[in-house]
From TrEMBL:
It comes from the Eukaryota. It comes from Nymphaea colorata (pocket water lily). This is Uncharacterized protein.
Length: 42
């Protein structure tokens, strides 16, 4: 679980950087999706 969480965190960081350029609203949206994804994996 820890390994999956770490990988997700790295991917999230990259995506968050791109999303920030698009807009803050998208960043919040991605945050919600990321949390949901973590729940599914766990």
């Amino acid at each position: 679980v820890i390994s999956a969480s770490g990988t997700l965190g790295m991917s999230g960081s990259d995506l968050a950087g791109e999303v920030r350029l698009d807009g803050f609203t998208l960043e919040l949206k991605w945050s919600d999706v990321g949390n949901f994804h973590m729940y599914l994996i766990q």
